[in-house]
């Protein structure tokens, strides 16, 4: 029996939109090019037919190292249509990591763009399993007809990689079905016929099914930039009248910590999605003071189960500090060390739904550790209220033990961020893994402010219990953040704070 084309990610995300609203603008690239849904679909078809002409076959694993955001969108969608499995490589990886990831991926073809030619030359000789090296500039076939579709439903669509904070990044297998389930994100968020989603180069990896797919699936206009840092954000939002954005709270610490945003028209922004880090009351207040018209949503998920929970936090419908409730079709629960479901107690966060990964590629033992029946259990701690509201407390390894009491660093960071003149704060326990730790707090001043560590310590002694009071405070120019291609700061790296300043409390 023929398989439905709507089970193919590329067809369901893009071709269906081209049939529904062919003349609607689907994508604007760096303010220079715009494509309707029909035009974008034809461009993707040309690349898909060119891949087939190169000999790429359904089920073949194709590594993709692409920096140019338009190429990412077109090549990923083209490979989805023809059933090739995309290994979504991170251009921020060191060359050695890139080589080892590709060697472990089972890829026999490698697509790249002009920005990474030198890197490709460095790794070619050490990857004998890769027999096809394809410059994406060559994928310009003449035919814009729909290619023969392959890859449907539970067939693998892509390998998306974890951050790799310990060891080699793990390859997370997502299927056409799980990625289509993720694409329904924006159906759960207010939007209109003129909604415009703005983003940058973070669309490689899990950012693709979490950002590009949902925007096109929902019929929005996707504004793709190469850089989505604060400076370009301030140029693009008024130019394109961007209405929807998805970032981490650290972005707004950087954006609002300087005076550059003052006087810039950001009135078009209607929805701000925030995840990846805790959103403090202080930061929410700063965002709403600057963007009073915007609804602020918190979300929670991981590469293995993206955007599982969501809730609006600025209007009282979802308590601040929580990540909302499970989205339609998804589920969340908290379990104790014995695996029993608990309510209003701290335990491990379990996520379930059709958006969940199929497993870690080539790692059956690791897969068995985190996939427990229908649930994904990834090591985050939290609580769940009786009415289903999830509060994420953090990673087990981030917990601080002082005075015989466990704390999550966000409580300390929130108290510090609320003090006048503090733009950002990061707290860690030192020494790492000790049965009794001291608390190291690093803070960054807001533009035009200076901070005195001793005065901050006195203020925090008044607002925090003894087991959460910092033992040493460092005033830093900046805190360490991951590089995630967003153009702004990535997630706060607490281990970097420990590595840089951990000797000081002693």
Automatic annotation (TrEMBL):
<dbReference type="InterPro" id="IPR050237">
    <property type="entry name" value="ATP-dep_AMP-bd_enzyme"/>
</dbReference>
<feature type="domain" description="AMP-binding enzyme C-terminal">
    <location>
        <begin position="412"/>
        <end position="482"/>
    </location>
</feature>
<dbReference type="InterPro" id="IPR042099">
    <property type="entry name" value="ANL_N_sf"/>
</dbReference>
<feature type="domain" description="AMP-dependent synthetase/ligase">
    <location>
        <begin position="18"/>
        <end position="360"/>
    </location>
</feature>
<keyword id="KW-0436">Ligase</keyword>
<dbReference type="InterPro" id="IPR000873">
    <property type="entry name" value="AMP-dep_synth/lig_dom"/>
</dbReference>
<dbReference type="Pfam" id="PF00501">
    <property type="entry name" value="AMP-binding"/>
</dbReference>
<dbReference type="InterPro" id="IPR045851">
    <property type="entry name" value="AMP-bd_C_sf"/>
</dbReference>
<dbReference type="InterPro" id="IPR020845">
    <property type="entry name" value="AMP-binding_CS"/>
</dbReference>
<dbReference type="Pfam" id="PF13193">
    <property type="entry name" value="AMP-binding_C"/>
</dbReference>
<dbReference type="GO" id="GO:0016877">
    <property type="term" value="F:ligase activity, forming carbon-sulfur bonds"/>
</dbReference>
<dbReference type="InterPro" id="IPR025110">
    <property type="entry name" value="AMP-bd_C"/>
</dbReference>
<protein>
    <submittedName>
        <fullName>Acyl--CoA ligase</fullName>
    </submittedName>
</protein>
């Amino acid at each position: 029996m023929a398989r439905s084309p709507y089970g193919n990610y590329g067809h369901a995300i893009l071709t269906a939109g081209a049939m529904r609203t062919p003349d609607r603008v689907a994508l604007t690239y760096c303010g220079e090019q715009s494509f309707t849904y029909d035009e974008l679909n034809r461009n993707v078809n040309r690349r898909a037919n060119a891949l087939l002409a190169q000999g790429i076959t359904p089920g073949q694993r194709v590594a993709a190292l692409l920096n140019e955001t338009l190429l990412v969108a077109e090549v990923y969608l083209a490979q989805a249509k023809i059933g090739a499995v995309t290994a979504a490589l991170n251009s921020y990886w060191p060359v050695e990591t890139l080589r080892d990831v590709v060697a472990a991926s089972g890829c026999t073809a490698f697509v790249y763009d002009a920005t990474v030619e030198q890197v490709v030359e460095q790794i070619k000789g050490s990857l004998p399993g890769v027999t096809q090296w394809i410059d994406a500039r060559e994928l310009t076939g003449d035919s814009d007809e729909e290619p023969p579709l392959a890859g449907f439903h539970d067939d693998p669509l892509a390998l998306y990689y974890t951050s790799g904070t310990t060891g080699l990044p793990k390859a997370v297998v997502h299927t056409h079905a799980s990625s289509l389930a993720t694409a329904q994100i924006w159906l759960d968020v207010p939007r209109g016929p003129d909604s415009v989603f703005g983003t940058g180069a973070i669309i490689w990896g899990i950012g693709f099914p979490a950002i590009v797919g949902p925007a096109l699936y929902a019929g929005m206009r996707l504004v793709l930039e190469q850089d989505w840092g604060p400076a370009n954000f301030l140029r693009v939002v008024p130019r394109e009248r961007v209405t929807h954005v998805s970032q981490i709270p650290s972005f707004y610490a950087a954006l609002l910590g300087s005076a550059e945003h003052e006087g810039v028209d950001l009135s078009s922004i209607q929805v701000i999605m925030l995840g990846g880090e805790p959103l403090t009351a202080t930061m929410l207040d700063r965002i709403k003071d600057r963007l009073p018209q915007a609804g602020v949503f918190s979300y929670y998920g991981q590469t293995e189960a993206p955007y599982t929970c969501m809730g609006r936090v600025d209007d009282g419908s979802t308590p601040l500090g929580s990540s909302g409730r499970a989205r339609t079709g998804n589920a969340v629960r908290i379990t104790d060390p014995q695996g029993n479901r608990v309510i209003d107690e701290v335990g491990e966060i379990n996520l379930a739904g059709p958006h969940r990964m199929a497993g870690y590629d080539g790692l059956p033992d690791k897969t068995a550790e985190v996939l427990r029946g229908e649930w994904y259990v990834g090591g985050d701690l939290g609580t769940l209220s009786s009415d289903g509201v999830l509060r994420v407390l953090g990673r087990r390894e981030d917990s601080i033990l002082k005075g015989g009491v466990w704390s999550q660093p966000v409580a300390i960071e929130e108290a510090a961020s609320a003090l006048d003149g503090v733009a950002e704060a990061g707290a860690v326990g030192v020494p790492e893994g000790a049965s009794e730790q001291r608390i190291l707090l690093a803070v960054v001043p807001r533009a035009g402010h200076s901070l005195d560590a001793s005065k901050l310590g006195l203020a925090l002694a008044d607002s925090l219990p003894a087991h959460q009071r910092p033992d040493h405070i460092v005033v830093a120019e900046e805190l360490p953040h991951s590089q995630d291609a967003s153009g702004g700061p990535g997630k706060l790296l607490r281990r970097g704070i420990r590595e840089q300043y951990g000797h000081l409390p002693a």
